[in-house]
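Pilot study result, target chain (254 residues):
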Amino acid sequence: MNHLLQEGRKENELAGTQKKEASTTKDATYGGIITANDVTITTSGAHCAPLATDRGGGTVKVSGTSTLTSTGQGSPIIYSTGTIDVTRGTGTATGSEAIVIEGKNSVTVTDSSLTGKAENGIMMYQSTSGYANDKDASSTHSTLTLTNSTITSEANGSMIYITNTRAIINATSTKFVNNTSTDFIKAASGNWGTSGSNGGTLTFTADAQTLKGTITADSLSSISINLTNKSSYTGATTGTVNITADSTSSKNST
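Predicted structure:
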């Protein structure tokens, strides 16, 4: 994998193209920091996220009018094992989710539009690869913050999939568009972790949100939804799913 291990690297009006498998164009690792503005990034190989952090963590900040595209299998627009912040970005991943967060790490998306066309819209998980370097990930959480953005899923899975981790999602004035599935959130055991203890735990806080679709937690998982500031939820729930609404918000769950 190609790494950028430079502290405080700044890049303006750059175009990046990556075709090798397991390579990324903006990849911070071992505490490195990358700041980029007005970038166009395209990747075509497998496991080649346009924006990524890697083993040991790192920080990637992208602002300005940026276009992010990946076409390879398992290549989300954003793959975080550290801290990634995107503002005013437009991105499409044809072979993966829009956003993947591994371990006790974070992604912040503001004023952006991201589309994932395979697997799920968003995935938050803990693998056993060691890239996230999180021995205590099971006792902490990953965090996704979405503001004034649109997340579109054209995959057959859920809009949001949580497995083998604890996760927090804070969404404000963000649209979730699921074009191919009615599943909004799924927390469940999967391919990672120890069987019998590898479910997902999610706390989702909605601020000025209109949410709809099925919410499912398997026997190892739980989901809490907090509706605030004129938010609403409509859909069916299965498993341990707790939905609360403040005085301005509403829920219609079955």
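One observation from the pilot: The first strand starts at residue 9 and ends at 12. A full batch analysis is planned for the follow-on phase.
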